[in-house]
Amino acid sequence: MTLIACSKIEIEPCDDGTNLYTLADYPIGVAADPGALNFISEYRDIAIEQFNSITPENIFKPELLHPQEDQFAWEQADQLVEFCQEHQKRLHGHTLIWHSQIPGWMQTFAGSNEEWEEMMKVHIQTICAHFKGKVSGWDVVNEAFNEDGSLRQTIWLENIGPSYIEKAFQFAHEADSNALLFYNDYNIAGEERKRNAIVNFMTDLKMRGVAIHGIGMQLHISISYPSERQMEDAMRQISDQGFLVHLSEIDISINPNSRDIEPTERRLQKQANTMVCVLDSYHQIPIDQQYGLTFWGVGDGHSWIPGHFNRVDYPLLFDEAYDPKPVYCALKQSL
Ligand code: G3I
């Protein structure tokens, strides 16, 4: 694979008090956790001052929202809704159908094909109806494809068949016809077979009248992968088919090879340049297809990466002390 180096820009100091989201033509979001919003004042201040869109990092996932077949747990999610309303933040729902973070009862659900479909319908429609008018968009189906372009083996595929994806979108649309509905996945830029499969599949759904409005590119990327060309091609390919593009889970690893590293100036500068490349590509798609950016966490201290991969990393806009990093300034400069 050819790597195209992103152009190096001079990053200027940017601690000028301007809030990020006021500089952009599209929403700038962050994945948030209600516990941290309630108890960590720096976290809360950044979420309020810098971002105007919120994605719940975990609490809207099936495991937490629908813990028992006949029981939904709305309390924390409703608190986040209130927070968004109070501070005028767009709320993006994540996620209705996924293979991970599903409750035990769902994993062991025993039923015919029709019963599985009915169970999925009740799950989706109860949630969409509860948040109707409060959530702007939904990640309806998350991570349904493998890297080779085949469909991932999940309980949904196994028990309903490939039509589960189309049905999930139909059910969500029936319950909230104003919500923008997204398919969301990772490695869409870097894995071309996966990207082609997703774009073809979703375009076919759209052509057949299914309400699918956008594609979320998660952008869990690093300072060396994918290339600028791959990001540009992916965003263009998706927008050419008329979809909204959500850069839905941005973090830029500076330690993709799990070494024992420090966040040196050189690495942080590379991270900042990668951010510039992402925005260069994003700004090439039509403005009315830019659903916005979402960073996958407020600051490095809250990233999922160190825990998940057991390595040090510094992938977000703010450091562990909640101070802005060069990548934050690069973003500001490029908006
Ligand atoms: O809620 C329990 C808590 O009760 C327990 O004490 C604690 C002990 O480890 O675990 C808590 O659950 C954790 C959960 O996050 C909530 O904090 C899980 O262990 C942990 O695995 C889980 O990780 C989340 C991960 O999804 C799960 O797959 C990350 O925070 C979240 O950032 C990550 O987000 C995903 C997106 O939804 C989809 N795309 C990929 C992205 C990164 O994996």
Write the layout of secondary structure elements.
Blueprint: E1 28-32, H1 34-39, H2 41-50, E2 53-56, H3 62-65, H4 75-86, E3 90-97, H5 104-107, H6 113-130, E4 137-142, H7 155-160, H8 164-175, E5 180-185, H9 192-207, E6 214-217, E7 220-222, H10 228-240, E8 244-253, H11 265-282, E9 290-295, H12 305-309, H13 326-334
Bound molecules: ligand G3I.
Ligand G3I binds next to loops.
Structure description:
The chain is of the alpha/beta class. Helix content is 40%, strand content 16%. The chain has an 8-stranded parallel β-barrel, surrounded by 5 helices. Helix 6 runs parallel beside helix 8, helix 10 runs parallel beside helix 11 and helix 11 runs parallel beside helix 13. The longest helix has 18 residues. The chain is globular. The two termini are 29 Å apart. The mean pLDDT is 96. Bound molecules: ligand G3I. The site of ligand G3I has 8 residues, from loops.
- Ligands bound here? ligand G3I
Report the order of strands and helices. EHHEHHEHHEHHEHEEHEHEHH
- SS strand fraction: 15-25%
Radius of gyration: 19 Å
Mean pLDDT over all positions = 96
Biggest sheet architecture: 8 strands, parallel, barrel
Low-confidence stretches: none
Distance linking N and C termini: 29 Å
Shape type: globular
Please summarize what this structure is.
With 335 residues, the protein is α/β, with parallel strands linked by helices. The chain has helices at 34-39, 41-50, 62-65, 75-86, 104-107, 113-130, 155-160, 164-175, 192-207, 228-240, 265-282, 305-309, 326-334; strands spanning 28-32, 53-56, 90-97, 137-142, 180-185, 214-217, 220-222, 244-253, 290-295.
